[in-house]
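hiii, so i know i said id send this last week but things got crazy w the move. better late than never?? heres the sequnce for the chain we talked about at the cafe, plus the structure i predicted for it. fair warning i was half asleep when i ran it
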Amino acid sequence: MSVRVRCPKCGNQFCSKKPLAGTIVNCPQCGQKLAVGRASAPVTGDENPEWNLIRQMMRLVAEYNKHDVVSRLSAARQRIRAQGKKCEGRKRFNEARKPVGGKPDTRPEQYHKLLDAARAMREERKTYTEIATEFNAQGLPRLAGRGGWTSDAVRVLLGLRARKRQAPGSKPGG
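okay and structure toks below
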């Protein structure tokens, strides 16, 4: 039994043998590629086996490249962590910044003055709260530009982590 095929481009009708049903043939008159046994529509990239092969190969190349980039970044992060440096997230304001392209330190002079003053007060055995109170009394603005000085803000300025707050009613160390 044969399958009747009509070319949408030239309108030519021709018969195709049953074993060719579901395959791609060329119109004998105009050469248009047609899918036999289907709606006789022109062949698109989805029905073309060469295009499917190329797409699959490109997906594999992209997956390989992604794996390569991820492994390189992971190795670089491990090297930085091994040196004891922070490599992810936002850096603290007081962390040393490497000069980029020979440019000088971009932190404001105010930062260095506050840092020197806080270090001098710590050498005088003042607490973080006392330093914050003195900064507030002098009217020194915080580097973040909002709020007054707190003991945690002084700790951050000195490069220490702010202490964790305990929930009300909880026991220290537990």
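btw The mean pLDDT is 75. thought thatd interest u
miss u guys!!
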